[in-house]
């Protein structure tokens, strides 16, 4: 029988479970979600604060969990999503692309934390914060003005 190194098994399980939950959460269907967009963002902020602390002290366990929670966060309610998508109009696709970049960076951080690779983790963390700011600069006002 072929024995795969542990980290390969871990990566396959991680990628499989994350893609299912990311599809489940990230495509924003949120039939059973009751979250407003702001509530969703504030729960992301809580995870980002935990992630910041764990990255600067190399707490790999906490960093993995916080990054994974950011990558697989619950989407907004369907009603809220319809308001946001209507406000975005033709920008909906670039919004989704921006969101996916944040999701993918959070997944990379979770893998870096699993591999106890602090240098890669802080580099991806820095890119994640930059990417979140880019998304906010492009979309925050549009959505806020839709309310
Ligand atoms: C780790 C990831 C993220 C964190 C920690 C975060 C955090 C926040 C925070 C703190 C706010 C302000 C909430 C308030 O008004 O009190 C906010 C608003 C917002 N964010 Fe994010 N954000 C993240 C990712 C994203 C991404 C990827 C997008 C878009 C692709 C996005 C789009 C928005 C929008 C549109 C608002 C305005 C919501 C509203 O006023 O209704 N955010 N975010």
Explain how this protein is built:
The protein has 147 residues and is an all-alpha fold. The chain has one domain (6-144): Four Helix Bundle (Hemerythrin (Met), subunit A) (Up-down Bundle), CATH 1.20.120. 78% of the residues lie in helices and 0% in strands. It has six helices and no strands. Helix 3 (60-71) runs antiparallel to helix 5 (92-114). The longest helix is centred in the last third of the chain and has 28 residues, at 118-145. The N and C termini lie far apart (58 Å). Protoporphyrin IX containing FE (HEM) binds next to helix 2, helix 5 and helix 6. Protoporphyrin IX containing FE (HEM) binds at residues 37-38, 41-42, 44-45, 48, 70, 95, 98-99, 102, 132, 135-136, 139-140, 143-144, 147.
> Which architecture name does CATH use?
Up-down Bundle
- Please give the alpha-carbon distance between the first and last residues: 58 Å
Helix content: over 70%
CATH topology: Four Helix Bundle (Hemerythrin (Met), subunit A)
Q: From the alpha-carbon coordinates, what is the Rg to the nearest angstrom?
A: 16 Å
- Number of strand segments: 0
Order of helices and strands: HHHHHH
User: What oligomeric assembly is this protein in?
Assistant: single chain
**CATH class group:** Mainly Alpha
Low-confidence stretches: 19-25
Q: What hetero molecules are in the model?
A: protoporphyrin IX containing FE
């Amino acid at each position: 029988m072929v024995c795969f190194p542990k980290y390969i098994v871990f990566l396959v399980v991680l990628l499989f479970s994350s893609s299912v939950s990311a599809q489940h959460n990230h495509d924003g269907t949120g039939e059973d979600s009751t979250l407003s967009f702001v509530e969703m963002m504030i729960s992301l902020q809580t995870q980002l604060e935990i992630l910041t602390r764990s990255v600067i002290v190399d707490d790999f366990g906490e960093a993995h969990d916080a990054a994974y929670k950011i990558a697989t966060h619950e989407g907004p309610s369907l009603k809220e999503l319809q308001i946001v998508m209507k406000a975005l109009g033709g920008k909906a696709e670039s919004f989704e692309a921006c969101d996916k970049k944040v999701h993918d960076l959070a997944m990379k951080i979770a893998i870096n934390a699993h591999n106890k690779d602090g240098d890669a983790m802080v580099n991806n963390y820095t890119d994640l914060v930059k990417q979140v700011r880019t998304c906010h600069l492009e979309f925050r006002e549009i959505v806020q003005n839709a309310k």
